[in-house]
Amino acid sequence: MAAADAGPSGPSDVPETDSSGPTVGGMSRAQLEAAALAGRQVSGPLDRVAALQLLRHGQMTVVGRLLSASNATFFCIVEGPAAAGRPAVASAVYKPIRGERPLYDFPDGTLACREVAAHILSEASGWDLIPPTVLRDGPLGEGMVQLWVEVDETVDVGELLGSDNPSLRRMAVLDVVLNNADRKAGHLLPLPDGRVQGCDNGLCFAVAPKLRTVLWRWRGQPLTDEERSVLVRLREGLKDALGDELAGLLDPAEVKATARRIHVLLAAGRLPRPDRDRPAIPWPPY
After folding, report:
1. In the predicted model, is pLDDT for residue 228 greater than 60?
2. What is the rounded CA–CA span in Å between residue 229 and residue 266?
3. What does pTM read for this prediction?
4. Quick one: which of 14, 129, 161, 197 could link to 62 by a disulfide (CB 3.0–4.6 Å)?
5. Per-residue exposure over 84-106, b if at least 16 CB sit within 10 Å of its own CB, e if not
6. Which ranges constitute the DSSP H helices of 126-186?
7. Contact 25, 77 (CB under 8 A)
8. Phi (first) and psi of residue 93, to 5 degrees
9. Which SS3 state, helix, strand or coil, does residue 13 take?
């Protein structure tokens, strides 16, 4: 599983591509499809700055559709100019805006922007909880493109949820700020180095309270000094460049509500408990 609703189910409903000869990064069409079916990241080590540059400006080739995803979601290969004698190439997830299903509680055509805004807040926190994510044009129009993340398949997500993994606690804090309405267990990406990232962050930033998550392990616990420091930094950033960046992706009322959630969280000094008047866990939870 990787940065999408579920693992790839093979090519479907995508533009036809010649299956003969090299296509992208020196790989044949068959090799690209094998990478998609295996959920494999084709790049070597790639830092966040290089990944964002490649995702924004690289040439994108759709390999296959992830059929179990609720919105139109595609496994892609993104290729940029060669560096150090080898092509810059990476696997990515592409969610075109035109493929978003209408929802009764979120404005149409806004999920891609919400995913990008969630990544921006993750970056501002310094916690690196969301894979590199950009908004750009693609073969099926403008959409979200996110670096594909290979996960540690040996990790039992159920056991992970019962652990004190620091990344999970940080994600629980960030999700309060994001007002994440859909933090399922299946949206957790356990990395080989023990860290955890989260994908499918489109149902965030609503003005009304909608927090639905499987990360209630730390409910009611006091904020740590580190968490307070990060929240203060986010609060101050929203008054300046961070707020300007989010304003290009979200409604002004949603940016204000984000600042208000940070204020409330700092004032309470502890992580919230579930609200008894609305669902606390997304369905299905996985």
Report:
1. yes
2. 10
3. 0.89
4. 14
5. eeeebbbbbbbbbbebbeeeeeb
6. 157-161, 166-178
7. yes
8. -105, 135
9. coil
DSSP reduced 3-state for 130 = coil
Two structure tokens written together for 51? 């990944």
Cβ contacts of 72 within 8 Å, gap of 6 or more: 65, 95, 96, 98, 99, 100, 140
Boundaries of every domain in the chain? 22-147, 157-268
Provide φ and ψ at 134, rounded to 5°. -135, 165
* CA atoms lying within 13 Å on the CB side of residue 106: 23
Strand partners, 235: none
Structure token digits, residue 79:
């290729």
284 upstream amide cis, omega within 30 of 0? yes
Sign of CA dihedral 101, 106, 107, 112: negative
Tens of pLDDT along 37-90?
777 888 877 889 999 999 999 999 998 898 888 899 999 999 988 666 566 889
Both tokens of residue 200? 């499918």
**CA 164 from centroid of its chain's CA atoms:** 22
Q: Would residue 197 be called left, alpha or beta, if left means φ above 0 and alpha means ψ between -120 and 50 degrees?
A: beta
- Residues with Cβ within 8 Å of 173's Cβ and at least 6 positions away in sequence, in order, are 223, 227, 230, 231, 265, 271
